[in-house]
Amino acid sequence: MKNNIEQAFEKLFPYYLDQLKELVKIPSISFDHFDVQEVLRSAESVKELFEKAGFSKAQFLMPPSGKPSVYAELMVSPSHPTILLYAHHDVQPEMRRELWQSDPFLPEERDGRLYGRGTADDKAGIIVHLAAVSLARELWGKNAPNFKFLIEGEEEAGSSGLEVLLAEHKDLLKADAVIVADLNNIEKGTPCITTSLRGMSAIEVTLSSTETPLHSGSWSGPIPDPAQALCRVITSLTNEQGDIVIEGFYDDIIPPTAEELDSYSKLPLGASIFKKDSHLLENVALLVKESEIPLALWRRPSIVITALESGNKKIAGNVLQNTAYARISIRLAPGMDAERSTQKLIDHVQKNIPYGLHATIEKESGADPFTTNTNHPYFQKMKEAMTESFNKEAKFIGCGASIPGAVLFRETFGEIPILLIGLEDPESNPHSENESLDLADFKKTMIAETLFFGKLASENT
């Protein structure tokens, strides 16, 4: 079976690569203050791909934001299992355009990789699903599973409308399993299935001292500096080892199983590799021991200050600023609740504001962590398919990022298997400049997913 699939994709791969390039050309940035028409144009292009492939019911599912998801299906038999295939067509902003080696929205091949915003995260996931289902239909016909596609249009902006879509279209989207193609592999050439995700949340804190900025020579000394006060608040969040010291923050964490710990210990994630992949500067120390890197990434919470502002670097003067601002982002370990954890963070910040400064704290919508067990036979079938395609044993790993859809799929459809795969590797730079996709892994993932569908089809003969 593998030889037939490989031979088919030798012929089909240039076509699917071209389709990916066309999608990457559309700057479908879903954040507010960017052109929503580009997200609409991207959705229309995805819809046309499904229509051209002969899938039925291709349509927009419109969330309150007006940034559409795309639905399509290929239904074979009501007696066959139905697989819901998820990816997203929106992308991150290009960040600092001057640091890109080529235009972020003009895809370019270099050294076996395709560069451009959305190549790995996550327009390649759309094409993998499209290619695998199209070939599965050709190879197994009436024995193939049923397929449904959900290609979201605002995942990068937090999937704020996905819960509404799932509630409104629960019957349309109902499935026996979900494959999410939006994750990463531990290294190039090693296929991975993710079994845990961290959740996330964030707050925005503004401290104020006076109504307006003041001349620092005339007023500083008696009047507290909001920037220094905010720094004190921030440093109160962790100790010198980087451990979070917010009261009760670790209470609900679910520890990894013995099987997961054994799997983590066998991964190529030593300190030297991790430092290289993260581009850590020379002599910068890690906060954890080498053996704890996977745990710190996947099974423990973290706090990051994603923005810190008081005054402006370009127009800095001798001014006592009247306000200071920080966005405090938290990643949540499995077992933690986004709402409760965010409130614990807010309570801690409020208790540690010095000098009676006025504080404004706004919280963002969060996403809960996700875990799954691998007992369902679909996990073993996917692991076998990926191992066969890559000629390297597939690994079960965790992920420190968040996929809001994973939790929402479980809440909507119950305890069905949710298989998390993806096309990112340590060189992909998703969310940063010079995002790229390894083209060899791109093709192998198409083959792997098709092999998985073949294993399901063999049960329907």
Describe the structure.
By secondary structure, the chain is of the alpha+beta class. It has two domains: 2-197 and 370-460, Aminopeptidase, CATH 3.40.630.10; 199-255 and 299-363, Alpha-Beta Plaits. Helices cover 36% and strands 22% of the residues. The protein has helices spanning 2-24, 36-52, 119-140, 162-168, 170-173, 216-219, 226-235, 258-265, 271-278, 293-298, 338-351, 377-390, 404-413, 439-457; strands at 56-61, 69-74, 82-88, 108-110, 113-115, 146-152, 177-184, 192-197, 199-208, 214-215, 302-309, 319-320, 323-332, 358-363, 370-371, 395-399, 418-424, 436-438. A hairpin with a 7-residue loop joins β1 (56-61) and β2. The longest helix is centred in the first third of the chain and has 23 residues, at 2-24. The model has no long low-confidence stretch (mean pLDDT 95).
Features:
single chain, 461 residues, alpha+beta, Aminopeptidase, Alpha-Beta Plaits, 2 domains, six-stranded mixed sheet, four-stranded antiparallel sheet, 36% helix
| Helix-residue proportion | 25-40%
How large is the share of residues in beta strands?
Answer: 15-25%
CATH class division of the largest domain: Alpha Beta
CATH homologous superfamily descriptor of the largest domain = Zn peptidases
Distance between the termini: 15 Å
The value of Rg in angstroms is 24 Å
Strand order of the largest sheet: 1-2-6-3-7-17
Q: What is the name of the CATH topology of the largest domain?
A: Aminopeptidase
What is the CATH architecture descriptor of the largest domain? Answer: 3-Layer(aba) Sandwich
